[in-house]
Amino acid sequence: MASLSRSRRAFWGDIRFLVGIALVLLSIAAVWLIVAAADDASPVLRAHRTITQGEALTSDDFQVVEVGLGALADDYLAPEGLEPGQVAARTIAEGELVPARALTAADRLRTTTVVIESGTGIPEDVQAGTAVEVWSAPLLEDGRTFDVPRILVADAVVREVLRPEGVLADTRTRLEVVIGRADVADVLAAVTGGATLSVVPWESGE
Fold it and tell me: If you classify domain 42-107 with CATH, what class do you get?
């Protein structure tokens, strides 16, 4: 019996030894994976403010962050990838990692900005980067009444909200909006023709 008891103790001692070795190996593997993941981190640019389509870009618009993107690293903009003369090809949200395709050369962008005056109030959450529709109610021939409102620009983006300030300020709000160059003539014609313009925010679904 004594011999059997010693054999059992020796057996369980061996098991505990092997388990201990396995735990040590697992610990080493975990540390190696953590170090390997850190080594795979790539420096990319992150926007520290909302940047609207068409804005000229500088290094001041971004901060460099280290992110483990793996095979996707080439899809995002590295610090050395920012070149002079580049502009935002679309709105880049504050805090967003910047995709390389979100930048383009200024001469390739087919948008511009115009300042319009909204004849109706706009929601408080309309701000730089908000996608909006521009609606127009044309002035009728009598010069006093307006036609039924219709969509003038279906896919504009707010660059800046110029809200009135001061007690004696006009109650109407002006906005600088980004529109396609093909829409410029219609917008200017509506403004010079006395139409009432309004902006309506909408969700892009992206």
Answer: alpha beta
